[in-house]
Amino acid sequence: MNIRLDAIDRNILAELQADASTSLDEIARRVGASKTPVWNRIRKMREAGIIKGQTTLLDPEALGLEACFFVLIRTSEHDAGWLDRFLNAVKSRAEVMEAHRLAGDIDYILKVRVASARAYDDFYRALISEVSIYNVTSTLSMEEIKNTTALPILEAE
């Protein structure tokens, strides 16, 4: 299902991205509409797959996950068996926050959250025991400057 988003829809999405626990009454007030039409719009955006779900954001440092590593991976293997093993290894590790396949010299990049450099080394050793990797470069994030889950909601062209 493909729906066109108008200004009210985009405002509703912005409110939900800012805090999905905001009451329907408050969202309706903020976007200048009444409660039932706002609920119907949210329902339609869910049905269309625009709204995929709701979640709670946690503070990694408050949970002792103070180290964030970006892991650049190059592989010399590109067969289906290797890819299946790699995807299973990455998807099964809770430490992997994001994983992307890239164009260019680097094949994959992972964002990994762990408690310490030692915990990262444990993660690394477990990963390479499951799948052969040609080259790995790990970089420690010294400071998180921006982190958001909110997507830019642009007007249709």
TrEMBL record:
One biological process GO term for this chain? Answer: response to amino acid
What PROSITE patterns does this protein's entry cite?
HTH_ASNC_2
Keywords of the record, alphabetical order, are: DNA-binding, Transcription, Transcription regulation
Q: Where is the HTH asnC-type domain?
A: 5-66
The entry lists its GO molecular-function terms as: sequence-specific DNA binding
Q: Which GO terms describe its cellular component?
A: cytosol
SMART domains per record: HTH_ASNC
UniProt cross-references to CDD domains, sorted A to Z: HTH_ARSR
Q: Which PANTHER family match?
A: DNA-BINDING TRANSCRIPTIONAL ACTIVATOR DECR, LEUCINE-RESPONSIVE REGULATORY PROTEIN
Q: What is this protein called?
A: DNA-binding transcriptional activator DecR
Q: Which organism is it from?
A: Pontivivens insulae
